[in-house]
Design brief:
The protein is mostly helical. The chain is built from 13 helices and 5 strands. Bound molecules: tryptophanyl-5'AMP (TYM).
């Protein structure tokens, strides 16, 4: 299955990104595409210097998380101009009404003083990312499901109007961890923009910071390490533990039967520290060699252009453009 997924460079990457998305990518990477979506990052206020820096850091982090540029196509969105062009063409088959209903737009627009047109158009650019590469599956966390469903609608509309051009992609959410909650407010997703700093475990956090964040996670007034109504905080920690150790929920619950929250939280913290330790070590190595990172991204950009070019040409042709 041809997979495409993307991640924004700005904002520190956290356990939710890893568990909901990146972890699955490494497992299905052969002949698939993974994109650092820098064009999406300018849809809200940002600092140009930070964008440059975070684009390279994210490339290093993705390789450290197991993406192998020899096996997959890892590239930066702006290095392939087809995406911006595809965005414009697809915006003609996207409606104002459907974009206005996107929950991410509504949530993010509420947080901005200045609501850009780019923020509104964000899902159309995302559709171009996906459709230009004839993608069959899009592995994302639950929060991105609506955007992939919109992409399907856009693909079907384009195909109906101009002839079969795009594969209509499937959304792939992981069975476990599709929505990791903020440790302080577990009903909200873990996020560097909408969540709390104390409730967001960053992939590059120091071990002591991870211990503090996990130990101060909000739980409930009970004592049992079990899923159940009113126990979102504990359930969130069970999910994290389950992913970090590879044990299923029942096994985690059985192991902590009769033990209190204190022991459980300490063990979750240590499991997360072990999970990120090799990622952090590899990240440091890669980050210290910017020339090598630039080389990897140049190779990725070339492969990405070769992948999207034919579809973009077909779009222009079917839409009646006369470009040679
Ligand atoms: P972004 O950068 O916000 O997030 C990257 C991925 O991380 C997942 N994620 C989570 N999963 C579980 N729990 C959480 N708390 C959590 N927070 C984030 C997201 O679902 C996502 O899969 N619009 C996309 C980027 C994008 C894209 C694309 C994705 C641009 N073009 C094409 C797929 C295909 C985004 O902002 O992701």
């Amino acid at each position: 299955m041809r997979i495409f997924s993307g991640i924004q460079p700005t904002g520190a990457k956290h356990l939710g990104n890893y568990i909901g998305a990146i972890r699955q990518w490494a497992a299905a990477q052969d002949d698939s595409l993974f994109c650092i979506v820098d064009l999406h990052s300018i849809s809200v206020a940002y600092d140009p210097e930070d964008l440059r820096e975070s684009t390279y850091s994210l490339a290093a982090l993705l390789v450290a998380c197991g993406l192998d540029p020899e096996r997959c196509i890892l590239f930066v969105q702006s290095h392939n101009p087809d995406h911006a062009q595809g965005n414009w063409l697809l915006s003609s088959v996207s409606s104002f009404g459907e974009l206005r209903r996107m929950t991410q737009f509504k949530d993010k627009a509420d947080q901005q003083e200045f609501v850009s047109v780019a923020l509104f158009e964000y899902p159309v650019l995302q559709a171009a990312d996906i459709l230009l590469h004839q993608t069959e599956g899009v592995p994302v966390g639950e929060d991105q499901r609506q955007h992939v469903e919109l992409t399907r609608n856009i693909a079907e509309r384009f195909n109906a109007r101009y002839g079969e051009t795009f594969v209509v992609p499937e959304v792939l959410t992981p069975k476990l961890g599709a929505k990791i909650g903020d440790l302080q407010e577990p009903a909200k997703k873990m996020s560097t923009t909408g969540g709390t700093a104390q409730g967001t475990v960053l992939l590059l956090d120091e071990p002591d910071t991870i211990r503090k964040k996990v130990r101060s996670a909000v739980t409930d007034s009970g004592r049992e390490v079990r899923r159940g109504p009113g126990k979102e905080g504990i359930e969130n920690l069970i999910s994290i533990m389950s992913v970090a150790t590879g044990d299923d929920f029942d096994a985690v619950e059985a192991r902590y039967d009769g033990k209190g929250y204190g022991d459980f939280k300490s063990d979750v913290a240590e499991a997360v520290i072990e999970l990120v330790r090799p990622i952090q070590a590899r990240y440091e190595e890669l980050r210290s060699d910017p020339a090598e990172l630039q080389r990897l991204l140049a190779v990725g950009a070339e492969k990405a252009r070769a992948s999207s070019g034919p579809t973009l040409d077909t779009m222009y042709g079917r839409m009646g453009f006369t470009r040679p």
